[in-house]
Amino acid sequence: MEASRCEFEGDIGSVMEVEEPEQPMVLNIYNVLASANTGVNIDLPWFTENFGNTYYDPQEFPAARADIPDKHTKSVVTVSAFSNGKIQATGGVSVECTKNSLKKIVRKLRSKGFEKAKLLSFEVHNIQAVIDAGFPIDLRVLREIYVFVDYEPERNPGLRIRIPVLYLYNQGCNPEFLQRQLLAHQYGNVNQNKGRLERANNPAFFRNGKIEIVTLTIHFSGKIGMAGGRSVEGLQKVLEYIKPYLIRSRLV
């Protein structure tokens, strides 16, 4: 196996040299939470009667729910329709199939006489994914080399790392730099980065005053959970960034 250099410096005093694992680390998305607006008000009892495979109990939840199967991914997307026209989807295994499920609701509304119905303001709020590193990870070593982690094995066996996606595009970014950016956003001190935020090449990285922050939950077994992402590009960037730290923490 060939050694590769991590492009992110300053983590433990020098550039890390790591060996690529034989098994590639693949991002497996298992849930996408997204929303949109139809532009029309929806009578929920009518919606329940006219849309197949739906459920509505106003005492339980203020929305009617419809299960939309996706034949390409063999997943089922649950769409919640609200009376103000907002629709929300969860359960999709890709952004594309999630968006297509919302489009199906809009097409059905139009076929039922709501000619003004459109898919408006589509937004992805959370993408959840899992990764198999392919090897066990010594979480104590990872804590030592990354430092800025949340790890209390007495309470939770997983080690958590929060990563602001936008700042991974800074040349030479490292854990200390990323932690400073997290704290700056947490306490509202972001004026120095205002220009960068406004020029973000992916709107998901910075939306409504909030940056995209991905939380990694890393387990000894090598299984890694990802949550909080708003774009597949962002999740891939996080994986690319954290990979050298995982390999260096490999239990041998």
TrEMBL record:
One Pfam family per UniProt: TBP
GO MF annotation list: DNA binding
Keywords tagged on the record: DNA-binding, Transcription
An example Gene Ontology biological process: DNA-templated transcription initiation
Presence of keyword DNA-binding: yes
PANTHER family, A to Z: TATA-BOX BINDING PROTEIN
Similarity comment: family membership: Belongs to the TBP family.
Protein name: Transcription factor TFIID
Organism: Cryptosporidium hominis
